[in-house]
C-alpha cells in the first residue's frame, strides 16, 4: 500500500510535465480550430520549452530566477503531497505558497507592466483562496478527514455529496488556469494591456521554469477534479478521467466565448459564487 | 457620353478664400466659431516672401478659408483657446515650417515629430524668443512630464544657435 | 497622495495597430494624465508633391495608409477635378462609390476585430478578420491588389468591372451581410463585453463639438455630420442617406455606430450595383492645375478627411495637404484617457480608430 503512494508520487514528478504539455498542446489545437485556424502541432509546448532553455540569459534581476525555481519546487511539492494521498489542506497551502513566490518574482523585476501584473495576480489569489480553503473544510464535514487517500476507499464519490461545490470548482479553475474571462494577470495571448503582465520580464530558463510549473499545476488541478469522482469501485477511475476531459473541454469553450472582465467583476463573482454554493451545499447536507 | 446628371449642391457652393491680415486672424476665427463654424485644418505653404497660412473652417456643407501671409519670424497667436484640436496642427507647423505660435495649449516645444533636419518644408524658417506677457500655463504641465524636459533644452538651444541673424 | 508611476505605452504594443507613444501617469490602476507623442512614422510625403507630377501623385496618396488607401486617392482625385473643372463620367463615379464602400466595410471589420482583441476576445477577432478576407478577395479580383488598389485616378477610374461580375459581387456582399450579423450580435449583446464597454470612455455632445471631433467618434455622441449626406459625386445618386448616430457617447455606442455603418455600406453597394449605368470610365485631364487653391472633403471610415490643394500652373502642385480625422480626434482621445482605468486604456485608444500613418504622412 505504501509502495503505491511512492509510485504515484514518482509518476507525478516524472510524467506530470509531459501530460501537462500534451494537454496544453491539445488545448491550443482545439482553440485554433474553433477560431478557424490550423493551429500548432500538439507537441509545440515541448518544442517551446526546449527552445527557451537554449536562449541567452537576459534577466533583469538575478533574484527573480531564484524565486521562480522556488515556485516550481513548491508546486511539485504540492502535487507530491496530493498524489501521495496526503493532507489536502496542506497541499493547497503549499500551492498558494508557490504562487506567492511567482508574485514576488514579478515584483522584483521592477518594470511597470510586471508590477501591475503581480498586483493583479495577488488580487486573483484573493479571489480563489476562499474556495480553496472551504473545499477541504466541506470534505471534512462529509468524511471527517482532510486526507486525500480517504477518497479512494469510500463507497460513494464526493460528487454525490458536494455537487454544488464541484460547480464552484469549475468556476475557480477558470481563474487558476488563466482562461478568459479571468485571464487578468498573464495569459498565453500577449494582447492584453499589460503586454504579458506578470511574466513580461521573464525569458529564457526562467520562463521555461514558469511554463513547466504551469504544466505541473494543470496536472494537480486535474487531480482535484478527479478526486470528486473516484471511489472504491475500479470503474470510478474511468469516470474520473472522463470527467476531467469534459471539464477541460468546457474550460476551452468558455475561454473562446468570453471577453476578459475587470478585476472588480472577478472578485465580486468569485466570492459570491463560492460563498453561495458552499452555504447551499452544506445546508442541503445537514438536512440529509 | 453620359456624364453625371446632376451637380450636387455642395459643388455649386463656391469655395471661399478670404485674405486677411495676421492681426485680425484670431478675432475672425473667434467670430466664426461663435457662429457655429467648426475648425477643420491649418495649412502652411512656403512662398517667396515667407509663409502663407490657410485656416479652414466648415459649417455643414459650406467651407470658408481664411488666408494670411506672414514673414519668417512673425509671432502668430494660437487658436487653441478657441479650438483645442488645433494643437496638433500648430505643433506640426511649428516644427516643419518654423512658424512661431504663441500660447499653444499643449506645446511640444519643437519635439513633436523629432525630425532629423530642422524645418524641412521651409529652409528659411527660424524660431524666435516669444515674449511672455503673462505666465504661460503650458510650462507647469511640461515640468510634470518625465521624459520631455531633458530633450527640450537641447532642441531649443540647437535652434537658437541656428537662428544666427 | 499615492505614489505616481509613469507607464510607457507604445510605440510597440501588441494591442496598437500603429505606433503611438503615450506616457501614462498612473496612480495604482487609474490614469491621471496621458501625454501623447507621435512622430514614429512621419515620412514627409507632402514634400514629394514638388517632384511628382499631379497625375502620378495619386499613387503616393494611396500609399499613405493601408487601410484608408482607396479613400485618399478618391479624395485627391475629387479635389483636383474640382480645381481643374473636370467632369467625371457617371459610371466611374458609381464604381468609385462601390470600391469606397467596400473599403469602409473592410476597415470596420478590421476595427471590430481589433476592438475584440483589445478586451481579450481573440475568437471574435479571428472571425471578423476571416469575414474581411472576402472583401479583400473582391478587391483582388477587380483590381489586382488586396490593399493598395491603384484603381482611382484623376478623371475617373483605371479598371472597369463588367456587369456580370458586379452581379456576383452583389451576391457576395449580401452573404457577407448575413454572416456579419451573428458577429455584430456577439459584440453588441454579449454580457462580458458589455461589462467592459458600457459607461467607459464617455464624451458628451458639447465636448464633441468643442473639440471638433469627426467621424463615428462624433456620431456616437450625437453629432449628426457625415460628408456623404451632402451628395458629392456618386453619393448624389443614392435614394436616401442618413448618417448612423447614437446619443449614448460611450465606447458601446461607438461600437454600435460602426456596426450599423457596416450594414448600411452593404446596402449602399447593392443599391449602386443595381443602378449602375454604362459608359466610359475615365475622362483624361488636359493641361495643368491652374493657379488656384481648392478644398475637397471625403467621408472615410474614420471620419471626415479634408484635402487642400494649391496649384501654380505647372505640372507639379505647389502644396498638398491632407487633414486626417485622427489628427482632430487625438485631442478627444487625450480627454478620454484622463481619469480612466488601465484596463480601459487600449479600448479608449482604439475607439477613435487611430490611423497614425495617415495622420503623420
Mean pLDDT reading of chain A: 84
Tell me the quaternary state: heterotrimer
Which of globular, elongated, flat, extended, rod-shaped describes the shape of chain B? globular
Alpha-beta classification of chain A: mainly alpha
User: Percent of residues of chain A in helical segments?
Assistant: over 70%
Instruction: Indicate how many domains the architecture of chain A comprises.
Output: 1
Order of adjacent strands in the largest pleated sheet of chain B: 1-4-3-2
- How do the SSEs of chain B run, as a string of H and E? HEHEEEEHEHH
Tally of separate helices of chain A? 11
- Spell the H/E element sequence of chain A: HHHHHHHHHHH
Structure characteristics:
heterotrimer, A: 288 residues, mainly alpha, 73% helix, B: 165 residues, alpha/beta, four-stranded mixed beta sheet, two-stranded parallel sheet, globular
Structure description:
The complex is a heterotrimer of chains A (288), B (165) and C (361). Chain A is mainly α and 288 residues long. Chain A contains 11 helices and no strands. Chain A has helices at 2-34, 44-53, 63-83, 88-108, 112-143, 150-153, 158-161, 163-176, 204-227, 236-257, 263-287. In chain A, helix 3 (63-83) runs antiparallel to helix 4 and helix 4 runs antiparallel to helix 5. Chain A is globular. The two termini of chain A are 34 Å apart. Chain B contains 5 helices and 6 strands, in the order αβαββββαβαα. The longest helix of chain B has 15 residues, at 148-162. Chain B has helices at 9-12, 22-34, 87-97, 138-144, 148-162, and strands at residues 16-19, 38-47, 50-59, 62-70, 75-77, 100-102. The N and C termini of chain B lie far apart (61 Å). In chain B, the strands form 2 sheets. Chain B has a 4-stranded mixed β-sheet. In chain B, strands 5-6 form a two-stranded parallel sheet. With 165 residues, chain B is an alpha/beta fold. Chain B is globular, with a radius of gyration of 18 Å. Chain B has one domain. Chain C is α+β, with helices and mostly antiparallel strands and 361 residues long. Chain C has a single domain (43-328), classed as Cytochrome-c3 Hydrogenase, chain B, CATH 1.10.645. Chain C is built from 12 helices and 8 strands. Chain C has a 3-stranded antiparallel β-sheet with strand order 1-2-3. In chain C, helix 3 (90-118) runs antiparallel to helix 4 and helix 3 (90-118) runs antiparallel to helix 9 (251-275). The N and C termini of chain C lie far apart (42 Å). In chain C, 58% of the residues are buried. The model of chain C has no long low-confidence stretch (mean pLDDT 85). The chains are: A mainly alpha (288), B alpha/beta (165), C alpha+beta (361). At the B-C interface, helix 1, strand 2, strand 3, strand 4 and helix 3 of B face strand 3, helix 3, strand 6, strand 7 and strand 8 of C.
Amino acid at each position: 500500500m505504501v509502495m503505491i503512494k511512492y509510485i504515484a508520487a514518482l509518476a507525478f514528478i516524472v510524467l506530470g510535465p509531459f501530460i501537462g504539455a500534451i494537454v496544453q498542446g491539445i488545448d491550443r489545437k482545439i482553440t485554433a480550430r474553433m477560431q478557424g485556424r490550423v493551429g500548432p502541432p500538439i507537441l509545440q509546448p515541448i518544442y517551446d520549452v526546449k527552445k527557451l532553455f537554449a536562449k541567452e540569459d537576459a534577466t533583469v534581476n538575478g533574484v527573480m530566477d531564484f524565486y521562480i525555481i522556488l515556485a516550481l519546487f513548491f508546486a511539485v511539492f504540492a502535487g507530491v503531497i496530493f498524489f501521495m494521498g496526503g493532507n489536502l489542506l496542506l497541499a493547497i497551502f503549499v500551492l498558494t505558497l508557490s504562487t506567492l513566490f511567482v508574485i514576488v518574482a514579478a515584483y522584483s523585476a521592477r518594470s511597470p507592466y510586471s508590477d501591475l501584473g503581480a498586483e493583479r495576480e495577488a488580487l486573483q489569489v484573493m479571489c480563489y483562496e476562499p474556495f480553496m480553503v472551504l473545499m477541504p473544510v466541506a470534505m471534512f464535514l462529509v468524511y471527517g478527514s482532510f486526507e486525500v487517500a480517504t477518497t479512494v476507499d469510500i463507497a460513494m464519490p464526493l460528487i454525490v455529496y458536494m455537487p454544488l461545490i464541484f460547480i464552484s470548482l469549475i468556476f475557480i479553475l477558470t481563474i487558476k488556469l488563466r482562461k478568459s474571462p479571468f485571464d487578468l494577470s498573464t495569459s498565453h495571448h500577449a494582447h492584453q494591456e499589460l503586454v504579458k503582465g506578470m511574466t513580461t520580464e521573464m525569458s529564457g530558463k526562467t520562463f521555461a521554469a514558469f511554463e513547466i510549473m504551469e504544466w505541473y499545476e494543470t496536472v494537480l488541478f486535474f487531480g482535484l477534479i478527479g478526486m470528486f469522482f473516484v471511489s472504491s469501485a475500479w470503474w470510478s477511475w474511468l469516470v474520473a478521467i472522463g470527467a476531467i476531459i469534459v471539464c477541460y473541454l468546457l474550460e476551452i469553450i468558455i475561454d473562446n466565448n468570453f471577453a476578459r472582465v475587470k478585476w472588480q467583476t472577478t472578485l465580486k463573482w468569485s466570492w459570491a459564487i463560492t460563498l453561495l454554493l458552499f452555504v447551499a451545499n452544506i445546508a442541503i447536507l445537514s438536512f440529509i | 457620353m453620359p456624364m453625371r446628371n446632376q451637380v450636387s449642391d455642395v459643388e455649386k457652393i463656391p469655395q471661399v478664400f478670404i485674405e486677411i491680415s495676421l492681426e485680425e486672424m484670431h478675432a475672425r476665427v473667434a467670430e466664426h466659431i461663435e457662429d457655429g463654424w467648426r475648425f477643420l485644418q491649418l495649412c502652411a505653404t512656403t512662398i517667396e516672401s515667407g509663409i502663407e497660412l490657410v485656416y479652414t473652417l466648415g459649417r455643414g456643407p459650406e467651407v470658408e478659408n481664411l488666408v494670411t501671409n506672414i514673414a519668417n519670424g512673425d509671432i502668430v497667436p494660437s487658436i487653441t483657446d478657441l479650438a483645442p484640436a488645433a494643437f496638433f496642427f500648430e505643433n506640426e507647423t511649428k516644427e516643419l515650417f518654423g512658424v512661431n505660435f504663441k500660447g499653444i495649449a499643449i506645446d511640444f516645444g519643437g519635439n513633436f515629430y523629432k525630425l532629423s533636419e530642422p524645418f524641412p518644408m521651409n529652409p528659411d524658417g527660424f524660431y524666435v524668443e516669444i515674449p511672455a506677457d503673462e505666465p504661460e500655463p503650458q510650462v507647469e504641465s511640461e515640468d510634470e512630464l518625465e521624459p520631455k524636459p531633458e530633450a527640450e533644452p537641447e532642441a531649443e538651444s540647437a535652434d537658437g544657435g541656428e537662428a544666427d541673424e | 497622495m499615492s505614489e505616481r508611476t509613469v507607464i510607457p505605452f507604445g510605440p510597440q504594443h501588441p494591442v496598437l495597430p500603429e505606433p503611438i507613444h503615450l506616457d501614462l501617469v498612473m496612480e495604482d490602476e487609474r490614469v491621471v494624465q496621458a501625454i501623447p507623442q507621435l512622430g514614429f512614422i512621419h515620412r514627409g510625403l507632402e514634400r514629394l508633391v514638388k517632384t511628382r507630377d499631379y497625375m502620378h501623385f495619386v499613387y503616393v496618396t494611396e500609399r499613405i495608409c493601408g487601410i484608408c488607401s482607396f479613400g485618399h486617392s478618391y479624395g485627391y482625385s475629387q479635389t483636383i477635378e474640382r480645381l481643374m473643372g473636370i467632369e467625371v463620367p457617371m459610371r466611374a463615379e458609381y464604381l468609385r462609390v462601390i470600391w469606397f464602400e467596400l473599403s469602409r466595410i473592410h476597415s470596420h471589420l478590421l476595427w471590430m476585430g481589433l476592438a475584440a482583441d483589445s478586451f481579450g476576445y481573440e475568437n471574435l477577432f479571428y472571425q471578423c478578420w476571416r469575414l474581411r478576407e472576402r472583401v479583400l478577395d473582391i478587391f483582388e479580383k477587380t483590381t489586382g491588389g488586396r490593399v493598395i488598389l491603384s484603381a482611382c485616378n484623376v478623371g475617373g477610374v483605371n479598371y472597369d468591372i463588367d456587369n456580370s461580375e458586379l452581379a456576383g459581387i452583389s451576391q457576395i456582399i449580401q452573404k457577407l451581410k448575413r454572416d456579419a450579423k451573428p458577429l455584430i450580435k456577439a459584440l453588441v449583446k454579449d454580457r462580458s463585453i458589455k461589462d467592459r464597454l458600457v459607461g467607459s470612455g464617455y464624451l458628451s455632445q458639447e465636448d464633441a463639438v468643442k473639440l471638433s471631433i469627426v467621424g463615428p467618434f462624433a456620431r456616437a455622441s450625437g453629432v449628426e455630420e457625415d460628408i456623404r449626406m451632402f451628395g458629392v459625386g456618386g453619393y448624389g445618386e443614392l435614394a436616401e442617406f442618413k448618417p448612423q448616430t447614437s446619443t449614448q457617447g460611450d465606447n458601446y455606442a461607438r461600437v454600435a455606430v460602426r456596426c450599423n455603418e457596416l450594414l448600411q455600406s452593404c446596402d449602399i453597394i447593392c443599391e449602386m450595383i443595381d443602378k449602375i449605368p454604362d459608359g466610359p470610365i475615365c475622362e483624361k485631364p488636359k493641361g495643368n492645375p491652374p493657379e488656384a487653391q481648392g478644398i475637397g472633403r471625403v467621408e472615410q471610415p474614420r471620419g471626415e478627411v479634408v484635402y487642400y490643394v494649391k496649384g501654380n500652373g505647372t505640372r507639379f502642385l505647389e502644396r498638398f495637404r491632407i487633414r486626417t480625422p485622427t489628427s482632430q480626434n487625438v485631442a478627444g482621445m487625450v480627454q478620454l484617457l484622463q481619469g480612466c482605468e488601465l484596463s480601459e486604456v487600449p479600448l479608449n485608444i482604439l475607439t477613435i480608430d487611430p490611423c497614425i500613418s495617415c495622420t503623420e504622412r
